[in-house]
Records
---
Amino acid sequence: MTQTAKAAKKSSSAKAAAPAKAKATAEAKATTPEVKKPASKKKQAQAFPFTAIVGQEEMKLSLILNIIDPRIGGVLVMGHRGTGKSTTVRALAEVLPLIPRVKDDIYNRTVDQYIDAESGKKGTPVLKPEDVKTEMIIVPVVDLPLGATEDRVCGTIDIEKALTSGVKAFEPGLLAQSNRGFLYIDEVNLLDDHLVDVLLDVAASGRNVVEREGISIRHPARFVLVGSGNPEEGELRPQLLDRFGLHARIVTINDVAKRVEIVKRRRDYDEDPEAFLKKCTREQQKLQKKIVTAQELLNQVSMDDKVLTDIARLCMNLGIDGHRGELTITRTAYAYAALQGKTTVTMQHVREIAGLCLRHRLRKDPLETVDAGEKIERELAKILGEVEAAA
Amino acid sequence: MIAFTDIVGMDLAKQALMLLAVDPSLGGVVIPSAVGSGKSTLARAFADILPEGTPFVELPLNVTEDRLIGGVDLEATIASGQRVVQHGVLSKAHKGVLYVDSLSLLDSSAVSHIMDAMSRGAVIVEREGLSEVHPADFMLVGTYDPSDGEVRMGLLDRIGIIVPFTAQNDYRARKKIIDIVLGTRDSEDTEDELRMLRGLVNAAREQLTHVSMTNEQIKGLIQTAMSLGVEGNRVDIFCIRCAIASAALAQRTEVGDEDMKLAVKLVLVPRATRMPEREPTEEEMQSQEEPPPDETEAEDEEAPADTPDADAEEEQEETPDMIEELMMDAMETELPDNILNISLASKKKAKSGSRGEALNNKRGRFVRAQEGEMKSGKVALIPTLISAAPWQASRRKEKEKSGRKFGALIINKEDVKIKRFRDKSGTLFIFMVDASGSMALNRMRQAKGAVSSLLQNAYVHRDQVALISFRGKQAQVLLPPSQSVDRAKRELDVLPTGGGTPLASALLTGWETAKQARTKGITQIMFVMITDGRGNIPLQAAYDPNAEKAPKEQLEKEIEALALSIQADGVASIVIDTQMNYLSRGEAPKLAQKLGGRYFYLPNAKAEQIVEAALS
């Protein structure tokens, strides 16, 4: 649901907890500057539950597909104001599965990545997988605020250490925290150009290279990029647009019954968040389980060459440049099939997700009257028609 | 100081503030009002009716990003040698009021930060080595004068109540104003009244959870929102909260008709994007008694409503005006085929550095730090400390040797780094298109093509485009400064043409648009005038229907005075003359000369030629 109300209006207990938490973070920093909590723990504990959000299926599906297969490449959510864009993304953290990482690793690395980077380096001992301790963490969701400066995004020298002990230590930034997780940018179309440059660079290479203030660090930074915004506030740079795997569109719900439901749920939540969350626990767990099942099934999903050919033809007919369109459709269709509990991708699966994958890849024409989604649907129908005729 | 109860008139605004005091989760109140109406006095007096100790923070318009969201406290950090965090204005307003006077003049990055804070109830600080969350759950009270420009929609969407615009107080109010000024009112009276109001607010806050609202009432408000074309679902919730707060304020346990009417007035009507088919309030309210219509049907009615609705509005506009109207459809407009070439041309231009973003030491967004003198800008603390850090040990030794005193940190001149800011402003192109006479269709098409192709590249330069059409009695801003292709497309879909040529009015409207843009940090402005330069309607005609005819000299004088002032104001201009040669009497080149701009004779101008002319 939505929207509505300011996410701010969390429960009163969340409000009270917030300052305490900020303080706690500061204290933790003072005593043990090198140990960072995963970003997800920094967030207020009680977001509006994902499963209680009414409608906006396109956005919810896009996010779930990205959890199942992060290689889909993220999602851009664009649409009307006050329709629950950020509420939904912030609710995501509660249904995310657990992943293993090296214990206390600031980059959330897997054992393999850790050994690759750290083992046998400059006199350090050669590490074996059994030497490395691991822990389970929730897939991190990192919020990138508009006013972030580059040093906090990429990481920089730990200034306190440098001043007090003269040691050049690296203080990791948001990119480090978001490795193997989600990086969320609200109002992404208003993001400063220099930050967009950084993001494009990192998203393309999957690693963050910091060469500044006398430190030289490189660390993995693979994240699912999630952006949201209102197209009327400004356009998105095309290179950035292209980076997003999926493009979910979101509109004001115009169904009275649904809108009444939205308002009622929000009121229930505002009145007693604890009770409301409790009521949703089962649904939340069910969804989480469904996602995990789909993840496990993903490896067994296969696709006919015929379907692959049809996807290629669809992209060609729509005049989409490059191969990212095909790649995204294929991966997304796999994840979608897995979510449906199927092990074979059919054209029907493709049809359900083609709009999400291709909408933002069509050339944008300001005087175009035909909706991009319609265009895609039309081409699909043509191809499917041919399929039927051939069969 | 003038107290809340002393303020006269503006009853609706007062009522709105009372409701906000009762339920702060309404997000805020925006009061649009003309100069001198006492709106800012009222807003400041709002603190009177809030529980004691509620923070009230006024946001200065020229606030910098680090003051707004917080950052490192320079002095304290240097003094103590440890990082000291300073909370920003937004988090200082936590659990209280953030007041912004002239909300529409606030620069766009500050607006974005406020929006972000309102949506989270907190400020996330990720700057200069800091990574913190500061709670910032505040009520926003904003006042502005609509003639200064409008407030960004995204921000308005997060504010529950928008007080309908009122021009003036009535005479009874004036009498009271005079009384207050003359001091005939007793200060004890005032104190009593305030105490009573505070009591009312407190009682209402307690009452809030006891107010109930029926499903039919909720449905009625939502249907009203839909029939007014209000965007988004967040507004529904504000509307319902507003009705409940109103009932609580009256110590009722059930929401009544008057509460719902007030909610429609304060929350929905100011956001209406279309006229409802039926009357919004009265009838809508009464219709509840009838069985509510089938929902799916209602939805079906809503979905295609756009087209007939738009028609209805046009008809309304048409009636008072006797001008023959030619409705032009953007769908028929052809797009220039080589739009790509234009984008290439403009990119080249951007690199040459004459337009686009300007790095400077004063305003805009902090981008990077550079060596420089302390006086030449704002000191970038962290980079300065970083460059000083490696030398501390050796410097300390040196100082010890020489026996001089030193502080916790030794910073030399060469360590100092200053902040470089990026002024996020491209050029604002104000298109002024002559929509009068028979060539109007042609000119409009050219202008639209040019607007579209400029916008295609808006993201590259942060350029903006506005479009003013002039025809009939006065000029009209069809597209306020915008970067959005979607928005331009929507606004330019239907353009009326035909009638007289109010050239002077166009210049004035363009100049006003330019001035407004300046206050928002856009420094480079260019007029692109597509006209034959032959004005025949005086400025007066806008408000005096008898003034349509005017002697030629008066017309010329008006245009000349305006053109010279615009030139003196530093606005660049080009004039594109599309008149056939044999009809031209040389007015357009004259206009260009007075504006100090260049003149292009392009009788069959293609959109891309206009873009090239504007960028050259």
Note: Residues 119 and 125 of chain A are 6 Å apart (CA to CA).
---
Amino acid sequence: MDLNRLERTDEYRWQIPVDGSMNVPGVIFGDREQILQMDDKVYEQLRNVTLLPGLVGPVYAMPDAHWGYGFPIGGVAAFDAEAAGVVSAGGVGFDISCGVRTLHTKLTTAQLEPLKFELADALYADIPVGVGSEGAIRLSNAQMDAMLRGGAAWAVEQGYGIEEDLDRTEERGCVADARPEAVSERAKKRQRREMGTLGSGNHYLEIQRVAEVFDVAIAAAYGLAQDDIVVSIHCGSRGLGHQIGTDYLREMVLAATEFGLELPDRELACAPILSTLGQRYLGAMRAAMNCALANRQILTHLTRQAFERLLPDARLTMLYDVSHNICKVERHVIEGEEKEFHVHRKGATRAFGPGNPDLEPGLRPVGQPVLIGGSMGTGSYILAGTAESETAALSSACHGAGRSMSRRKARRQFHGRQIVDELAVRGIVIRSPSSRGVAEEAPMAYKDVNRVVDIAERADLARKVARLEPLVCIKG
Amino acid sequence: MITWMDRTARVALLYGLLLIYTPPATHHHDGRMQNLSWSHIEHDADIGLRARAPSRESLFEAMGEALTAVVTDPASVRPEQQIEIQCEAPDDALLLVDWLNALIYEMATRRMLFGNWRVTLDGHKLDALVEGEAVDRARHLPVVEIKGATYTALSVKQDSSGNWHAQCVVDV
């Protein structure tokens, strides 16, 4: 990225100053080297976001930001409904409520190691993964609507988990004001065979070891200690969310003129929050969020079943579940005014600090767990929301390492078999139906997650708690 | 002996040939009914599709093949089942997104891959017959699901020599 177009406001903040057409400034988080390495498209896309109406405060790009569609991946923007603010289907994306769920296992590395390969095979057999896979659950129309209203809470009612799981799930597992009637029949049909499926691409289920603890006190509050084994699930709202994104993007693109919106990029398709279309989209998007939460809950159930067969001493309990592709109504103080705003996070994680009333009592003293996915080989992180993050970026943090190489380039540079073999030498077991898929997801195709997380901490977005290393990765 | 004029003529000829034939990064000839020219372009997170063709119809067919190639080798897909697709949009670019999204939807709900595309266009109304088969994970080794076609870097254009060019980023 060309540094000349940015104003450095401190060591890790770079501002796109407001010019004639921009409504608010843009802020990109990163050190000099990261910003230099970032694609100019991040600048372009973040600047495009600043042109949207009803924005409040700056728009942000997290340290893992990269070229997306419409918003940059890693983009955060808040809109005021009463100031003609918009909701953008492009700002949420196709994989609505894609997120990470991490579970304790109450096992240590020593207990898991002897059964690592058997467990990898069992999980790979039990969890539908990759193109063409199907879940075992078939929902009637009425059940589908109940799932879209109830989310993970619905899944728990159906026997896919326990009530305590919901305490540690964002929104207690059920997003209010979901409107199944605003979800098209095509979207529901696309979901019919996809309940309890993992998907493909960068989605995964990993068994991970706590390799390093940075903050012993917060780790203890999260129930984590060195060499503990956890399970992390990264996936979203599956076909239903993809189709809702498709349906509403088209509708918003076509309605832009009617709303008097001049879109700098059609992918920023949006509608005024208070319009009928805006409200319908929000209702459908919330239904997709519930679908994602129900899906991760069902995957939790399947994971527990596999563990129970092989490691009956394991107790899989929730650490946390948080989404990173969403638009949510949240209360913030922006420009001195406290009110509710529609916060878009596209490839960015909500990171509520200590004391936030939305956190359950056990987490309130230390802040929300912020779950950062890595790649198959580079590890993941558990961070904690900080009080400072509220003013830094509306309590938002990065969501992963972020790609540094296109899929096409990765496919030409790496071979799936070679990646699997190299990771095996490091004790990481990969199970995937697609060798080319593994090549496209090669760890070297991602930025250095350690560096991304270091900057997130130094920029006060979140605090490092623990680093996780994968032992088993089920990859679509 | 090569004269100055000869060298100029040869350079001009070489440049002329390069302009006429710019091979895409990935070029697929399936040896059956279609001979389509497309490529995958760099995008940080997702995959860009690009195609060039002498007509709008063959351009849309080439983009259909480029879409399948995100998931598998299009030549590996057998034309066992035929389905019809119709869409209509206000302009060529939106029609391309609708076409790709219709293919993505059929791939997802039927668990199918497509290997043949016959597109008929009447203004901005598209009628297509597409042929393919159910996903066979052992034979197709499918790489990734496609979530949707985006409006980012989207274009459908005709150049001065009459060739059609299209570009679209798909989210995977």
Note: The domain at 25-171 of chain B is CATH 3.55.10.10 (Archease, Possible Chaperone; Chain: A; domain 1).
